Records
---
Amino acid sequence: MTGIIVALDGMTFNAAREGGALSTLSQAREKGMIWGIKINDMLYSGDVAKIMTSLRDEFKLGVMVDVKLHDIPSTMENSISKLVNSGANIVTIHCSSNYRPKNTGLLKYIAGVTALTSFTNLEIKWIYDKAHEEIVRAFSDIALMNNYEYIVGSVKDMTLIQDNPLKKICTGVRPAWYRERHDQVRISSIREALRLDADYVVIGRPITTAENLMDAITRIYKEMQ
C-alpha cells in the first residue's frame, strides 16, 4: 500500500509541537493512516539532534529529512551519518551529486532527487542543457547504479522510469478536492500516483493548512483506498 508522508515545510518544531500538529500526526501514524513526515527548514528551528530524537522517540514518526544534499563526498557522508544517527529514516540528496557513500550502510536511507517539481521544462533545459525526459532518466540511472534505496520526483517523472526497481517517492501530489498549485509546476492527482504504484506520496499543504489536520488526513487516506 502507498504510504503518506506529510510535508511540514515552513513549520518550526515548537510551533508544530505546541500547536498540536505533531500529536495529531502521531495519532494518524498509530492508526496506520500515514507513514510519517517530511521536514527541511524545521531542522533550522532549534537543536537538530533534539528535534530528530523527539520526532522519533516522543512522537514515533517516520522522518524523511529533505535536505537535498549536494556537496563533496566527505561532507555528504558526515551530514547523512549525523542525520541517520539522530533518527532520520530517509535523507534526500541530489542525484546529480553522484554520491557513493564509503559507509554502504547509509545506502538504505538515501533518496535520490531527480528534477524539482518547481522546475519548468525550459528551466531544466537551461540548467542541465538536456530535455526534461533525458535528465530524469539520467538521474534515475545514477540512483540505481549507486544502489540508493529510493528515487524522488513528480508522478510524471516517475512514469518515465517505471522500470527502475528503487522505491518511488512521489512529490507534487494533490487530493481531488484541493486545487491550489502553489510553487509546484508538475503536480498530479492521488489517482495518478496510485496507478504508478508509488511506494510513498508526499502531501503537504492540503493537510497542514486544513482547519482540522486529522479530518484532512482521513479524507486523503480514504481517497487512496
---
Amino acid sequence: MKIREVNENKKQFIALLLLADEQENMIDRYLEKGTMYVLEDNDVKAECVVTDEGNGILEIKNIAVNPKYHGMGYGKALIDFLASKYADEYSILQVGTGDSPLTVPFYEKCGFVRSHNIPNFFTDNYDHPIYESGVQLIDMVYLQRCL
C-alpha cells in the first residue's frame, strides 16, 4: 500500500471525488487549493483532499474509498496518514460531513468528536437534495481530532 500526493490533473480522480461530494462545482471550490493524496494498493483504492483552514486547523474536504473496497481499512489508513504527516504543523484535523449513519460513526471510530454544526449547509449550497442511507442531509456536522 502506497499513499502519494497528486499535484497535477487532480480531476482524473473525479469519479472518486464525486462519491464524497456529488456536485462538481462544490469540488471545484477546494480541489485546486487543496492538497490531494491517493492511496494505491495495486490500483487506486481511495483519495482525499485537505486544506489549511488557519489557526492550526487542517480540514479534510473530501475523502472517498472505491465502494468495492469499503470496510477494508483504506479510509482509516488515509486518516492515520494525515494525522501522522501533519502532526507537527497542525493541532486539529477536522472534517465536515452530513449527519449520516454511515459517515459520522466512521469518523468517530477514527478518533474524531463532534465539534459544531452549520445549519442548512446542504440545502443552501447544493442544487438538489442529497440523501445518504435514506436520510436527507441538511446540516453540516463538523468533527475534530486533536493531532
